[in-house]
Amino acid sequence: MNSKSDAVNYGSIYENVVAQELLAHGFSKLYYYNSKKMGEVDFVVEYNGEVFPIEVKSGKDYARHRALNNILDCSEYNIPESVVLCNDNYTQKDKVTYAPIYMVMFIHKDPVIDVKL
After folding, report:
1. Is the pLDDT assigned to residue 18 strictly greater than 70?
2. What's the CA angle centered on 105, arms 103 and 106, to 5 degrees?
3. Spacing of C-alpha 15 from chain mean position
4. What is the C-alpha to C-alpha distance for residues 16 and 10, in angstroms, rounded to an integer?
C-alpha cells in the first residue's frame, strides 16, 4: 500500500462478514440502530426472545462503544446482554461479551419447533 487512499476499510469488511453469517444462521431480519441521542449500533437482532445488539469493531479501540453503552444503560430498553465482535480474545464485562470476530459462527437463531399433537 502506497498511500492512505489504498488503505482497506476492515470495518466494512467485518460488518459484511457478520451480516452474511447472521443471515446464514437463521436471523432473517437484521436491524441497524441509529439515534441522534443514543448513537449507532451495527446490528440488532432478536435472540432467545430478547433484543440482542451486536457491535463489530476492527480496530484496537474495540472497548470504546458509546452507543452500545447508551442503549444498555437505558432502563426503558431492558437489554440483558450484547456482544462486541473484535480482534481480541474472549472476555466479558457487565452486559458486554467481547469475542473474536470468527466466533460469529456460534451465534445461531434457535429454530422454532412446530409440535403438532
Report:
1. yes
2. 75
3. 9
4. 10
Dump the DSSP string for 59-101.
Answer: SS-TT--HHHHHHHH-TTT----EEEEESS--EEETTEEEEEG
In 3D space, the residue among 65, 58, 67, 52 whose CA is nearest the CA of residue 22 turns out to be 52
Rounded CA-CA distance 44/48 in Å is 13
pLDDT (tens digit, 9 = 90+) per residue, 95-111?
999 999 999 999 998 76
Going across the sheet that includes 50-56, the strands are 31-35, 39-47, 50-56, 82-86, 96-100, 91-93
Q: What is the pTM of this model?
A: 0.85
Residue listed under C-alpha cell 445461531: 108
Q: How many CB atoms lie within 10 A of CB 41?
A: 22
